[in-house]
Amino acid sequence: MIKMDLLKKTVKVVISIFVLIGIWELVVLTGRYEQSLLPSPAGVLTGMAELIKDGALLTHFKVSLVRFLIGYLAAVITGITLGLMLGWNKSVWSFIDPVVQVLRPVSPIAWFPFIVLWFGIGDAPAVVTIFIAGFYPILLSTVSGVGNVDTVYLKVADNFGIRQPQLLFKIILPAAFPLIANSLHIALGSAWVFLVAGEMVGAQSGLGFMIIDARNSLRSDLVLAGIIFIGISGLLLDRLIKILESGIKRQWGVSIEVRN
C-alpha cells in the first residue's frame, strides 16, 4: 500500500514537471521572447551541464550550504532554547512579546545595511541574515507549543517528582515538539530564500552571487539554471528535515503532522 501511494505521488510529480516544461517550450516557440530573455528548456539544460562540468555549481553550492547550516542551526538552537524558557515564564514573555511582534515582520534584508556595518563583508552578513529569517518562526512556535502542553503531563511529572530542568527537556519539549517541527519547515524555507537574497546583495560567492554574476554576463540560461538548482536544493533540505523529525518522533513517541 505504501509503495503504491509512493508510486502514485511520483507519477503526479513527473506529470507536473513535464506539463510545466511543455508550457515553457510552447511560450518559447511563440517567438514572443528572445532567447536572451527566455531561454528554451534545452538551453537551460545545457547551462546546467556547463555549471556542473566547470565545477562552478559545486563550489558555490558548498559555500551557500555552509553559510546556511551555520545560520539555520544557530536559529534553531537559540529559538528553541529561548522559546522553552520564555514559554514557561509567561510573565517575562508578556514583556518581550510586544518587542518580538514589532521586529518579526521586518524583512532581514531591511537590516542588511546595519548588518554590513556591524559584521563587515564576507560570510557573516549572509549568516546573520539567515539567522534572523529562521529565528522568529521557531521562537514563536516554541513559546506557543510550551503554552499548549497538556496539564495532565505536568501533573504526572509532579507526581513522579520531576523538577526543572528535567521537566523542561524531558516533558515539555517532547510535548511541544509537533508545533516546533512545523516551525522548522517554515524557518528552513524562509532562511533558504534570504540566504540567496543576502548573497545577491553583499557576497562574492554562493548560489545567489552565481545568479547575479550570470545576469551581469547576460547569461539568462545560467540564471534559470541557478534558480532551478536553488529550488531543488531547498526541496532536498526540507526532506532531510523530515527524516530527522521522523527519527525524533520514534525516539520520543510523539505524533508529528507536517504539511507537505
Rg over CA atoms: 22 Å
Task: Classify the helix fraction into a percent range.
Answer: over 70%
Structural domain count: 2
Elements, N to C (H/E): HHHHHHHHHH
Q: Report on the biggest sheet.
A: none
CATH class of the largest domain: Mainly Alpha
CATH fold-type name of the largest domain: MetI-like fold
Strand runs, count: 0
Query: What is the tally of helical segments?
Result: 10
Distance between the termini: 19 Å
How would you describe the shape?
globular
In CATH, the homologous superfamily of the largest domain goes by the name: MetI-like
Ordered list of secondary-structure elements with their pairings:
Blueprint: H1 2-29, H2 41-53, H3 56-88, H4 90-103, H5 112-119, H6 123-147, H7 151-159, H8 166-202, H9 207-216, H10 220-252
Helix pairs in contact: 2-10, 3-6, 3-8, 3-9, 5-6, 6-8, 8-9, 8-10, 9-10
What's the short version?
The chain has helices at 2-29, 41-53, 56-88, 90-103, 112-119, 123-147, 151-159, 166-202, 207-216, 220-252. The protein is mostly helical. It folds into two domains: 1-30; 51-252, MetI-like fold, CATH 1.10.3720.10.
